[in-house]
Amino acid sequence: MGLTLYEKIWNAHAVATGPGGRTLLYIDRHLLHDGSFHAFEALRKSGRKVRRPQACLATPDHYAPSGSRDTIADPNLREKIETLAANASAATIRLLPIRDERQGIVHVVGPEQGFTLPGVTLVCGDSHTSSHGALGALAFGIGASEVAHVLATQALWQSRSRKMRVTVTGSLRPGVYAKDVILALIAKIGAFGGTGHTIEYAGPAIRSLGIEGRLTICNMSIEAGARAGFVAPDDTTFDFLHGRPLAPKGADWDRALARWRTLASDGDARFDQEVALDAGELEPMVTWGTSPEHGTRVTGVVPDPSREPDATRRASMEKALRYMGLAPGTRLEGLPVDRVFIGSCTNSRLEDLRSAAAIVRGRKAVVPALVVPGSGLVRRAAEAEGLARVFIEAGFRWGEPGCSMCVGQNGDLVDAGQRCASTSNRNFEGRQGKGARTHLMSPAMAAAAAVTGRITDVRAILPE
Amino acid sequence: MTPFTTLTAIAVPLDLVNVDTDQVVPARFLRMPRASGYENYLFRDLREANPDFVLDRPAYRGAKILVAADNFGCGSSRESAVWALAGFGLRAWIAPSFGDIFFENSFKNGVLAIVLPGDRVAAIRALLAAKPGTELTIDLPSQTVRLPDGAVEHFEVDPFRKECLLAGIDEIDLTLRYEKEIAAYEERQREDTPWLG
Ligand code: SF4
């Protein structure tokens, strides 16, 4: 029987078999950010050293201010950013510092720099590390203890996960994007449908996506419960990587390419679960509740908890609706929003900004709206092609790169009770600020919400 | 790490699905040092909104076991969620499913995370809600949870995790014993995929 790509990458990284048959897995790549201070602290306390600094790349993101960086007024932010710089410097870890144009959200920066490569194992103390699977890497989020473990040993004790394949056929219709694919998948299989699994995304609709769309999909694998998700690499991947600063060069590139071309699941490989989705049937999605599984078509209504047979699930839905200030049966389209956020590791790359700007062009934001590019390089590219001007002229705030309002750790918060149309990945209670009400959607949908002040079916205002 | 063998203690039910780690510890507290005591931030917003939050009911005071619903600990990788729950005094949690990263983080902190079938966990939660203060007995060597009526639930645990918990093994120490294998792997990698060096 053939092997899945997951198994091939796994086998190529197995260092040893330990107690209980567990595998010691070698880790090729490690991303660090300004929330990684607990792990450095633990390492210091145990008197251990970073084993392989050249396998690491660090950049501040969670605490990076979206306003000017000439001076960082907030001492809390400054402290976190300086701590990362000091930790990186002490361990001789490569850092893209706060005022470097290459700085940004780790999950945007890794692929952009060519740090993320096909077939590697990659970890980061952040659950959205699943993003990097878009390039054919086995990438997963870990906690602070495991970050310290990888820093000290460059390996991790792991058990094989189960394998799920999600096959997406058909092609997306106008106004429907990668974000809608993943929101629809999570609505279908649930927020723990992928628990214990690694997802391989396959099928013509995935193949026809660029790397940016694949990153959006792999990013939210964790919201379906899967620690990792990936797409087998293809020419789209190789074209994307060619010439990136940290990608292999010259003869190394040719050798790497030959190897990467073998990275695919065998035709007769078996998956524990198979899920199928028809891209052609999808519509723009929006969430109504406080779990990413609470998604529906924008043309849909808030569901009625009384139809939920399971008592615990029913109580949780009722709690979500109370928190969101929504009644069953309410149409999502037309629901007024108080603010809009376009950014996060899910949707802050150039293609995302293009799709949002296409909706904004020639219109004005009628509610406060913030756009935060995922990296300084995305920001500059967006300025060069005139996207920044579209946003600024429409009254959007044009921020400096980082996580920003996805989690609010840099102070970009949604006020209690406010409804925010957001391109991020989590609508959890309090995620964007205490009492904040988040509706997840694509960048184009968020742009439509900004210019109309309500949740709007973007298909009604798509440019010709 | 403190070893875990057996535990008889009050168990507290948490009857919500998809409890994410943002709820366990809201993001605004993540900048705090670990030494500040993450238990101080545990479920901060839920508890502020609801003074009768189950963890605060006197009948469950001193609970060391949490019995939750599906997908407990989903979302963010923040290990502080485990620190907060453990700092509150909990040493084990039982649910039909957990967030994968939270599950892993639990064992790293000497906490036993137990998966049991959904209907059994629901029945235990119902029992704990009907008779607050009820104690459960968890026995790791025999992999069982004993209920007060004598009923026994058997659970699966990865042998590696079991061994680490029983002995209180520090995983980094364990891994360092494989230094030769790691170095050999790196040597091979330098040959096969020099661009990763
Ligand atoms: S953008 Fe949001 S989800 Fe992504 S790494 Fe930052 S905080 Fe986490």
- Share in β-strands of chain B: 15-25%
Write the CATH homologous superfamily of chain B. Aconitase, domain 4
Helix vs. strand class of chain A: alpha/beta
Mean pLDDT of chain B: 97
**How would a textbook summarize the main sheet of chain B?**
7 strands, mixed
Determine the fraction of residues in helical runs of chain B and give it as a percent range.
25-40%
What binds here, in terms of ligands, is: iron/sulfur cluster
For the record, give the distance between the C-alpha atoms at the N and C termini of chain A, rounded to a whole number.
50 Å
Number of distinct helices of chain A = 15
Tally the structural domains of chain B: 1
Evaluate the radius of gyration of chain B: 19 Å
The CATH topology name of chain B reads Aconitase, domain 4
Strand order of the largest sheet of chain A: 5-4-3-6-7
What fraction of residues of chain A sit in β-strands? 15-25%
Euclidean distance between termini CA atoms of chain B: 34 Å
Task: Kindly name the structural category of chain B.
Answer: alpha/beta
Highest-level CATH class of chain B: Alpha Beta
**Got a strand count of chain B?**
7
Question: How would you describe the shape of chain B?
Answer: globular
Largest interface: A-B, 74 and 62 residues
Description:
The complex is a heterodimer of chains A (464) and B (197). Chain A is of the alpha/beta class. Helices cover 31% and strands 16% of the residues of chain A. In chain A, the strands form 5 sheets. Chain A has a 5-stranded parallel β-sheet, covered by helices on one side. A 5-stranded parallel β-sheet of chain A has the order 17-16-15-18-19. A 4-stranded parallel β-sheet of chain A has the order 11-10-9-12. In chain A, helix 2 packs across helix 5, helix 6 runs parallel beside helix 8 (211-219) and helix 12 packs parallel to helix 15. The relative contact order of chain A is 0.14. Chain B has one domain (6-168): Aconitase, domain 4. A 7-stranded mixed β-sheet of chain B has the order 4-3-2-1-5-6-7. Chain B starts with 5 loop residues before the first strand and ends in a 5-residue tail after the last helix. At the A-B interface, helix 5, helix 10 and helix 11 of A face helix 4, helix 6, helix 7 and helix 8 of B. Bound molecules: iron/sulfur cluster (SF4).
